[in-house]
Fold this protein.
Amino acid sequence: MSSIAAYYNGKTILITGATGFMGKVLMEKLLRSSPDVEAVYILVRPKAGQSMQERVANMVKSKVFDRVREDCPNFQEKIKPINAELTQPNLSISAKDLQELLSQVNVVFHCAATVRFDEPLKHALLLNVMGTQQLLSLARQMQKLEAFIHISTAYANCNRRNIDEVIYPPPVETKKLCDLMEWMDESVIQEITPKLIGDWPNTYTYTKALAEYLVQQEKEHLNIAIIRPSIVGASWHEPFPGWIDNFNGASGMIIAAGKGILQTVKVNNEAVADLIPVDVVINLTLAAGWYTAVHRPKTMLVYNCTTGGINPFCWGEIGYHVISTFKRNPLEQAFRIPRAQMTSNYLINQYWIAVSHKAPAMLYDLYMRLTGRKPRMMKIFNRLHKSMLLLEYFTCQSWEWSSENTNTLMAQLSPEDRRLFNFDVRQLHWSEYIENYCIGAKKYLLNEDMSGIPAAKQHLRKLRNIQYAFNTTLLVIIWRIFIARSQMARNIWYFVVSLCYKFLSYFRASSTLRH
Ligand SMILES: CCCCC/C=C\C/C=C\CCCCCCCC(=O)SCCNC(=O)CCNC(=O)[C@H](O)C(C)(C)COP(=O)(O)OP(=O)(O)OC[C@H]1O[C@@H](n2cnc3c(N)ncnc32)[C@H](O)[C@@H]1OP(=O)(O)O
Ligand SMILES: NC(=O)C1=CN([C@@H]2O[C@H](COP(=O)(O)OP(=O)(O)OC[C@H]3O[C@@H](n4cnc5c(N)ncnc54)[C@H](OP(=O)(O)O)[C@@H]3O)[C@@H](O)[C@H]2O)C=CC1
């Protein structure tokens, strides 16, 4: 029997961020591998006109729970939603719910955060730092608490090249910064944000770094571990290969490439793309929860959860496999044939943006206007370019993370635990993973049926014909305007044609001689 699965049976768990991408996979794995878990409390806020109850009722119907639904049809009875808002005093939890949590909870998994790169600093601090502080303060009062697992990010310290499994002190005192946010005008905060975050690329990574330090400072007697995943991608195996449900990380760009919208992207082809499958992160998280509770390490352990140092794969290779998968399994109604120019050169990227993004978008919008419809492509591209700007920091450089604690934990697991809670990424076969990722994005994120592939291929053939027709027309226009009208252009043209002819004749002659 797995020690990890056995540990969680009979335990009461609290998860924050359970409605998010990682939270759902965590909840699913926990309920499936430890069906006798006592209860899983989840902190949920009402959102988008839906009450907490409606959100949870919809969530448990989601595809991600299909496997656990098959194994334990009443799994949802274990899920106990608690109304909470992490940015509010006392997390807005009612006195009754609070009492229940304080007296019952054995393990806390803190996943909730804002992951937006453009989040205003005040809100990112309020949620990622002060929300964590409030949760820690609750945790300290929990009578039966055995472990507290904080989910951070491998990029919390992305201002360093080599990142060890230690907490790095931030440049400012968190408390002073939070005090500042309380009285300072929003517009002034916005203005001084770049100065405050210094060499961090965004408010997300900056506040995650502050949160790590705060956890270390305020842990007191608690058994805490920190998990630092890199770029979390679709699942490798569980609950299904390729399962994904949001556009974060690389997923949005992968889909944009599949739809033929993204044709150029600023990346360093040789830089390591540190993608990590979501099920690997969740398996490590559950294993760390068990280890922290049972072995109670003397110091707080940080687990870097990355692939680059162990099984590296570069952005150039990802781009190649994404495009080739989408050529074999096209997305429906692609805008253009999938292809990707990947360069770290600013000018070359700008050239391709103008030629393969802006020009087709303008032409398409013109066509929409002429046919009495609403233009939309330029808007989509402007949004894509904004996202690309925010992401390029991560795609143009590499980092090195040490993974001693993660490896030591793996070595402590029984063979059965290592099989059921596998986080050994040496076994990850990248081309197969990327193929499942793209197909998973098509099925689970875009809700496209695989039976529509022949029609999607037919659509790509139509696009190719349009492109050939367009290129030929363009060539004729260029000929008419420049070459046919100017003697000099004609001379250059004949010179180039005769040069090509000579080269061809030379190669033909030399290949005949060789045979
Ligand atoms: C040839 C293939 C090449 C593939 C690889 C190329 C590039 C890889 C790209 C990136 C990898 C780097 C990632 C680094 C991760 C660092 C590690 C972490 O810790 S992860 C936490 C990760 N957080 C994120 O990834 C959040 C990033 N996103 C944002 O901050 C914002 O979404 C935004 C980019 C600022 C855009 O904000 P905006 O207000 O304009 O849009 P919305 O967020 O409201 O979304 C609108 C709409 O678009 C969908 N969406 C969101 N992001 C993307 C995206 N990147 N691409 C396409 N579409 C996206 C979103 O779901 C919304 O849809 P809907 O309206 O239907 O809800
Ligand atoms: N995705 C990635 O690539 C990576 C993620 N991480 C970390 O993993 C964790 C989970 O990320 P992920 O699942 O991808 O993120 P998601 O954005 O998918 O989920 C975030 C979760 O936090 C909840 N939340 C946000 N604001 C509040 C609030 N004010 N009160 C209560 N709950 C709130 C959301 O609830 P709601 O549904 O109501 O919005 C949601 O459940 C985060 O800590 C993130 O920093 C680390 C590295 C990479």
Summary: The first helix runs from residue 3 to 8. Residues 17-23, 43, 45, 47, 84-87, 111-115, 127, 151, 153, 208, 229, 231-232, 246, 248-249 surround NDP (ligand 2) (CB under 6 Å).
